[in-house]
Amino acid sequence: MTPDSENRTDKQISSDSATPQTGEKPKAELDEGSTVPNATHSTSKVVQDGDSLVDIPSDVSRGKISGVFSTQTVAKVGTGTTTRKMIQKAYWFAEQNDNADASAVMVQPLNKHNVPSGPKDSIPMEDFLQRFNPELEFYQQEVFPRMKELNTTLKRAEEQRDQGALYSAEFEYAAALDFDEENVRANFGLGLTYMERGEPAKAEDIFERVVGLDASFAPEHKHLFNEFGISLRKSNLLDQAVEYYTRALEITQDDENLYYNLARAFFERGDKDDCTTNLDKALSLNPSFEEANKFLAYIKKQDS
Fold it and tell me: Polar residues bias located where (predicted)?
C-alpha cells in the first residue's frame, strides 16, 4: 500500500511528497527601517571588498544598502543643427545581498506606479557606487508609501483566501496587480484563488503569466511555488503541471524535489515511463529520498 497524505519537504523548492494511489488526485516583508547611504562623494577611502579593493566615499555608511537610487544617461535627440542632448533618469530599488560578502547589490527597476517590478540584476559594489545615486526623498515620499500599500493589499488578499472569501481575495489580488502586473505573490495568489473556485480556464491564463516570470522560481517563493504546482495537478491541469515543473528545471537542475513533483504529474497523466525517468533523476541526486524510493517501488510492484 502507498501513503495517502501530502507531505512537503522544506528545501529550496518543496516536493509534493505523497506517493499516489491508483485514481488518487494526488508567503517578502517590507522593511520599514530601510535606509540609503548618504553619499556626497567628497572624500574617499579604499577598503577590501571581496577579492578587490574598492574606493568608497568616506561618508557612505557601510551598513546594508537598501532604498531607491537613480542612474542617468545622456542621449542625443535630432540630427544636424537640431541635435541636442537629453538627460534620461531611471529609478531603481537597490538592496545589498544578505547572503554574500557585500560585494554586490541587487537592483530592480521601478515601474510607472513607482514600485519595484521586473527582473533583478546583480551589480558589483564598485560599479554600483560609481553609477547609482541615492534618492532618499523620492523613496520616502513616493516609493515607500506605495510599496507599503502594495504589501498591505497582498496581506489582505492572502487573509481573504485563507478564510475562504475567494471573491474578495480575487478583488484584492487584482488591486495588487494594478500596482505591479509582474508581482509574483499576486499572480500565484490569483491563480490559486481561481483553482480553489473551480475555474481552471482563468487559472490557465495566470499560469501562462507565472511560467514567464523567472522570479516565480526564486527560493523566497518556494512555498507558493509548491502550492501552485500541487493545485495545478489536483485541478487536473496535468499538461500545465508538467510544463510548470519542466520550466523550473530550466532554472534549477539540481533539486530532487522538482524531479519528484514532475514524476507525479507524469504519473497522473498516465506517462509511466516519464514518471520513472524523473524518479531515477531525483534518486541520482538524493539516493536516500524516501518518498521517491517508495514511489518507484510502488510503480515496480504495479508492473510485476
Answer: 35-46
